[in-house]
Write a structure and sequence with these properties.
The structure is a single chain. The protein is an alpha/beta fold and 504 residues long. Helix content is 42%, strand content 17%. Strands 8-19-18-17-16-15-14-9-10-11 form a 10-stranded mixed beta sheet, sandwiched between helices. The chain has a 7-stranded parallel beta sheet with strand order 3-2-1-4-5-6-7, covered by helices on one side. The two termini are 22 Å apart. The mean pLDDT is 96.
């Protein structure tokens, strides 16, 4: 499923009508009927339903919804917030059909009338404004939106909550706070932003006839799904052996943080890696061995428990390497990171490795093999020299620019993890929950990413599947065993087999 900006959605709409040949009136009919079916799933027959209609196509969808629900025996009233002269084109066509079918449209003229209408409403369907909103609302729509949010009604928005921007980077807005949003054709970018996602409530996309090839033509963003995971996760050959599933090296850990690399090692093996070696300070090796006897280990040089450069370590025997986990930010460690960066295989840089990366970008950009970084918002902001607030306003654009400029794969972790490839493709993973907001979760993800990189031929698919498994393991643990409060990173590792067992 593609994710679109407002401009991309307009392009899809225009192309579908002009080049594919689907008439706008048909698309509007499809949209209204599809949304009506979703509305019926969350309301009751006895509810008093008010369809609040504004200008443009969003209002036109409202007339179709009003007609469809009316014909199905629901108690519906259509309230038009704008003068007739602002109802044109396909919206005017569907208004007339609604009237011809016996419907009645109440034209709102006085602000006080809206208070009376809201007092007699159980469910309000928001068809006021669509995806073309930029900047603050104007009167009287602004006042109507405020009254809607203050009313004791269920609010269902069509396509997007009225007043909410579709795109990222915008802060000056006032929006309907929906309980449900049924978005049309494709989810909009703002559904995946920390600053705007909450206004959607629970959301779902309805299909109205836009061909998949058209959506893919205009958008390089995609939502990863269970179906895509099943389709792209490599199947095990009955005659395979450990070498077929990759040899991975994990470099990290310090005397004060032995648990981080231990969890990364465990997660990598549990997720399916064939052979994993941990390179760390010698004091950590007994801890890793006692928790994961399947792993191999290499002791590295250290000063006061923190890793320093060790030219004796060979990287040529590994298919992929992960570095940075729990290694600390000591100055002497930077040279070790730079040594590992010369490896001729995929390199995953996480945690403290990202701190050392910042001063080594010019070196890493020269690598011929793929480089993958896995920052959370704070780490990404550090790499970009921007504030976390700025980053969270435009995470797609910042990730895209950084990936293209440096030739990296970027896994920007968060409620909605954004995976960006150097060629500009962006994938959003939505598995996972607030129980993951705890130390060690990122270390586990790094291990799973390493395992997936070792097993996949397609690097972008490996990153998407790693994020999917990580989040899904947490979701299944919450469903069956843990709560958001007590979920530990080690519980997520224990949940990895449940993902494979459930989905295969």
């Amino acid at each position: 499923m593609n994710i679109v900006t407002a401009e991309e959605m307009y392009d899809v709409d225009h192309y579908t009508m002009k080049e594919i040949g689907l008439d706008g009136k048909v698309l509007m009919e499809n949209a209204g009927r599809a949304v009506s079916e979703k509305v019926k799933q969350v309301i009751r027959k006895e509810d008093r339903i008010t369809i609040v209609i504004g200008p443009g196509n969003n209002g036109g969808d409202g007339f179709v919804i009003a007609r469809t629900l009316m014909e199905d025996g629901y108690r519906v009233q259509a309230v038009q917030l704008v003068p007739d002269k602002k109802i044109g084109g396909d919206a005017s066509y569907h208004k007339q059909i609604f009237l011809n079918c016996g419907g009645d449209v109440f034209l709102l003229k006085e602000n006080d009338e809206f208070d009376i209408i809201l007092s007699q409403t159980d469910v309000l369907v928001d068809c006021i404004l669509g995806i073309g909103v930029y900047g603050p609302l104007r009167s009287p729509i602004k006042e109507y939106v405020r009254k809607i949010n203050e009313a004791n009604v269920m609010i269902i928005s069509v396509d997007i909550p009225s007043g909410l921007p579709s795109d990222e980077g915008l802060t000056d807005f006032e929006s309907v706070q929906a309980d449900y949003t049924f978005t049309i054709g494709a989810p909009k970018l703002s559904a995946f932003l920390q600053t705007t996602a909450i206004f959607y409530g629970k959301w779902e996309t309805v299909s109205i006839g836009f061909p998949k090839k058209v959506l893919s033509q205009f958008s390089k963003r995609e939502l990863w799904s269970e179906q895509l995971f099943k389709e792209t996760m490599p199947k095990r050959n009955p005659f395979s052996y450990k070498g077929n599933h990759g040899r991975g090296l994990i470099v990290g850990g310090s005397l004060v943080m032995p648990g981080s690399i231990t969890m990364t090692v465990q997660a990598a093996l549990k997720a399916g890696a064939g052979l994993i070696t941990a390179a760390t300070v010698k004091e950590n090796i007994p801890i890793i061995t006692s928790n994961c006897p399947e792993a191999m280990s290499i002791p590295l040089s250290d000063v006061n428990g923190f890793l320093v450069n060790d030219t004796s370590i060979s990287t040529s025997n590994y298919d992929a390497i992960a570095i940075g986990i729990g290694m600390g930010r000591k100055e002497g460690t930077t040279n070790l990171v730079r040594t590992i960066m010369q490896a001729n295989c995929p390199l995953i840089i996480d945690a403290d490795g990202l701190y050392h990366l910042k001063s080594s970008l010019s070196i890493v950009k020269k690598r011929q093999a793929p480089t993958i970084i896995t920052p959370h918002a704070g780490e990404m902001a550090m790499l970009l020299d921007v504030s976390i607030k700025e980053l969270l306003l435009s995470p797609f654009q910042y990730s895209l620019d950084f990936a293209r400029e440096n030739g990296f794969y970027v896994v920007l972790k968060g409620k909605f993890t954004i995976i960006t490839s150097p060629d500009g493709r962006q994938i959003v993973n939505t598995t996972g929950n607030q129980g993951l907001a705890k130390g060690g979760s990122g270390d586990v993800l790094t291990g799973i990413i390493l395992a997936m990189v070792l097993q996949h031929d397609d690097l972008l698919q490996s990153l998407c599947n790693a994020c999917y498994v990580h989040g899904k393991a947490a979701d299944l643990q919450i469903e069956e065993k843990n709560t958001y409060y007590d979920l530990m990173a080690t519980d997520v590792i224990s949940g990895i087999p449940n993902v494979y067992r459930t989905l295969f």
